[in-house]
Design goal:
The complex is a heterodimer. By secondary structure, chain A is of the alpha/beta class. Chain A has one domain: 3-Layer(aba) Sandwich (Rossmann fold), CATH 3.40.50. Chain A contains 6 helices and 6 strands. In chain A, helix 3 crosses helix 6. The longest helix of chain A is centred in the N-terminal third of the chain and has 10 residues. Chain B is α+β, with helices and mostly antiparallel strands. Chain B has 2 domains: 115 residues, NADH:ubiquinone oxidoreductase Nqo5 subunit (Beta Polymerase, domain 2), CATH 3.30.460; 315 residues, Cytochrome-c3 Hydrogenase, chain B. In chain B, the strands form 5 sheets. Chain B has a 5-stranded mixed β-sheet with strand order 1-3-6-5-4. In chain B, helix 7 packs antiparallel against helix 16, helix 8 packs antiparallel against helix 9 and helix 9 packs antiparallel against helix 14. Chain B starts with a helix and ends with a helix. Classes of the chains: A alpha/beta, B alpha+beta. Chains A and B meet through helix 1, strand 2 and helix 3 of A and helix 4, helix 8, helix 9 and helix 17 of B. Bound molecules: iron/sulfur cluster. Iron/sulfur cluster binds next to helix 3 and helix 5 of chain A.
């Protein structure tokens, strides 16, 4: 136990302020959210992540925003297991044909307002996998998308800033 | 090794001919008549060979019919056995009686290529879902990649268990955490799992078909995205397969840089895995500490090589980024810090009794079963199998770098953690060696196009285990077929065996300790 405590004190606080993201990589659509909703979600956002056919590179970066350095929880961002609790669904991958139904069901299980973020080049437009017998070629072919974050995979600061930007009052 | 070939030749009664299209020449390749396909498997099984892959090709453009291939590894030797079947009668003898991994390989072949393994006991489709038309065989040339398949009605027959108190737990495809999708079905009595059946294929994106519309040069970008966490190893494997076909000689510095990237990838992923395993045993402290270390590695990658996972930096012919003296110094400093911090954390891991209670004797994967299932990589090494392509079939530069392979025999979660711990230490040593001995010169050379019908093969040890690529050039210097065998394709079978008799709450822990790729399996 003493070693654990010592290691904790030695490490201190690892969290860093997030670097400025590259604006070109984030595209926010016209989101209809009431002022109250924006205010509430800004400090407490619950996300359900769905891998709809990614190569798992994007997942690695989502893990990264949960690490102590990017520490997304400081912004009140939390990942949940159940879509019923989720305010946002974060989708990666070009939507493989075999995941299409599961993605639709997840989306339908969410309560409104349901925000959809397409994360990574694949999710934005199919990326290298394109559109084929096995790939739908992008999340917006299956469910409406509110935010596109591009990159292969997008770097953690782009992901965080992309999500947070939705709630900045204009 | 000639003895193996001789035994095989005598078993086959002189009916086997050498396949002249196969590169590199160090890989033995034989073409046998259809009825001898199993005979070869039988002889190889007797010689203690492992089945590493089995696949089919559509050879319409190369004279018609289908090619059925099986690849074996016997000690340090790879051997490819091919047989040809005609379009009218696409049947071939199944290998499942000799080799267990053939079970999934052949289901996949029949689902995606429409060739029929005679004697296979389970013909349920694999990867192909029940809502695909039954006659949709995407890997056939007659099937256009852009086909929009109609959705049909169908049902998947799960293996059932009956009896008093037996119940079923379906999990997935969307899991609770941030992981890839797959469906698991447990049959349990109380807390004890009596059987687990996995169903995968949710992230099938048609990668093998996609290769066929890309040029040889562009193929590497797709290979880098077969499984994002193994991007370097996949790029290297694809590149080597192509280079062997074209006789391209990659400059030494290019090879050494690749090894540098590969070992960095290994360390980063192992750090993440150990943390995640501890987290599943409710020891979150470790996850956060190790993910912090992992993050420092990724940042250095981005700074020096321009990408956090070093994606797209390995290309056929060499590498696209070099390292300078400052970069070297930076890595050396970083590794010293890493090694020290890691050591402290390992100590904490070792001295934590509640963690030990969870990881010891959990998810035991016995050496016998591991061997029977031809398991590879970390999982195999934790179950007593000494398999590592960096040693048994060293691809450059590992022919001149010594690698110590850790092997444990207990086969439990702890063993799989411990193999990773040892590999991290070894990789740190290897990186230092690489930086000290990095040859001078170019990092990349031009690559020509392979001649038609030639076939290239590569086996590379990624952090998960042995990755196999097999490339076949078409008549017009196009990719006719690119077969990708991620270690996950064989190791997933292992998880189903390791979990038997454990309790349901230990499943996440076991699954994490295997940590196989869904994307690499489903392709
Ligand atoms: S965007 Fe890139 S990293 Fe993300 S899933 Fe697609 S290929 Fe993988």
């Amino acid at each position: 136990m003493i070693r654990i405590l010592r290691q904790m004190f030695r490490t201190g606080i690892a969290t860093e302020p997030i670097a400025v993201a590259n604006d070109d990589n984030v595209k926010i659509m016209d989101i209809k959210l009431s002022k109250t909703a924006k205010r509430c979600l800004r400090k407490s956002l619950v996300i359900r992540q769905v891998d709809a056919g990614s190569c798992n590179g994007c997942e690695l970066e989502i893990h990264a925003i949960n690490n102590p350095i990017y520490n997304c929880e400081r912004f009140g961002i939390r990942f949940t297991a159940s879509p019923r609790f989720a305010d946002m669904v974060l989708v990666t991958g070009p939507v493989s044909r075999n995941m299409e139904v599961a993605l639709r069901r997840t989306y339908n299980a969410m309560a409104t307002p349901k925000l959809v973020v397409a994360l990574g080049d694949c999710a934005c437009n199919g990326g290298i996998f394109g559109e084929s017998y096995a790939s739908c070629g992008g999340v917006d072919k299956v469910i409406p998308v509110d935010v596109y974050i591009s990159g292969c995979p997008p770097v953690p600061e782009d992901i965080l800033q992309g999500i947070l930007k939705i709630f900045i009052p204009k | 090794m000639t003895t193996l070939l001789e035994t095989l030749m005598s078993e086959l009664g002189g009916e086997a001919v050498a396949n002249k299209h196969q590169y590199p020449r160090t890989v033995i390749s034989l073409i046998v008549p259809k009825d001898k396909f199993v005979v070869a498997a039988k002889a190889l099984k007797k010689a203690d060979a492992f089945l590493t892959a089995e696949w089919a090709t559509d050879e319409t453009m190369l004279g018609g019919g289908f090619g059925i291939y099986a690849c074996y590894r016997c000690d340090a030797q790879y051997l490819v056995v091919k047989t040809k079947v005609s379009e009218d009668d696409p049947t071939f003898p199944s290998l499942i009686k000799k080799y267990v991994p053939a079970y999934r390989f052949e289901r996949q072949m029949s689902s995606l290529m429409g060739v029929i393994p005679v004697g296979h006991t389970d013909m349920r489709p694999w990867i192909k879902f029940e809502n695909w038309p039954p006659d949709a065989w995407p890997l056939r040339k007659s099937f256009a990649a852009s086909t929009l398949m109609p959705s049909v009605q169908g049902d998947y027959q799960w293996i059932r268990a009956y009896g008093e108190g037996v119940y079923e737990i379906p999990v997935g495809p969307v899991h609770a955490g941030i992981i890839e999708p797959g469906h698991f079905r447990f049959q349990a009595v109380g807390e004890n799992i009596i059987n687990l059946e996995a169903r995968l294929g949710y992230v099938h994106k048609g990668i093998e078909k996609r290769f066929e519309v890309l040029s040889f040069q562009d193929g590497v970008r797709l290979a880098a995205r077969v499984s994002g966490d193994t991007t370097v190893a996949h790029s290297i494997a694809y590149s080597i397969a192509l280079e062997t076909m074209t006789g391209c000689r990659v400059p030494q510095r290019g090879h050494w840089l690749r090894a540098l990237f590969l070992e960095r990838e290994r360390i980063a992923n192992h750090l993440g895995d150990i943390g995640a395993i501890c987290n599943d045993a409710a020891f979150a402290f470790m996850l956060y500490q190790l993910s912090r270390l992992k993050e420092t590695l990724l940042r250095t990658n981005r700074k020096l090589f321009g990408h956090r996972f070093i994606m797209d930096r390995v290309v056929p012919g060499g590498c696209t980024v070099d390292i300078d003296t400052e970069g070297k110094a930076e890595i050396l400093v970083e590794l010293d810090v890493l090694a020290k911090q890691f050591q402290r954390l390992v100590r904490i891991y070792e001295e934590n009794p509640s963690l030990e209670d969870r990881v010891r004797d959990t998810g035991v994967f016995t050496p016998e079963i591991a061997k029977e299932l031809c398991t590879v990589g970390v999982v195999a090494r934790a179950s007593g199998l000494k398999v590592d392509c960096r040693v048994h079939q060293p691809f450059p530069p590992y022919d001149s770098i010594e690698v110590k392979v850790p092997v444990l025999i207990s086969g439990d979660v702890h063993a799989r953690v411990w193999v990773r711990v040892k590999e991290i230490r070894e990789s740190i040593r290897i990186i230092k060696h690489i930086l000290e001995n990095l040859p001078d010169g170019a990092i990349r050379t031009d690559i020509s196009m392979p001649i038609s019908e030639s076939e290239g093969f590569a086996a590379v040890e990624g952090w998960r285990g042995e990755i196999i690529y097999w490339l076949q050039a078409g008549a017009d210097a196009q990719i006719n077929r690119c077969m990708v065998r991620d270690p996950s394709s064989v190791n997933w079978l292992g998880l189903e065996q390791a979990i038997k008799g454990n309790i349901v709450p230990d499943f996440p822990l076991c699954n994490k300790s295997f940590n196989q790729s869904y994307s690499g399996h489903d392709l």
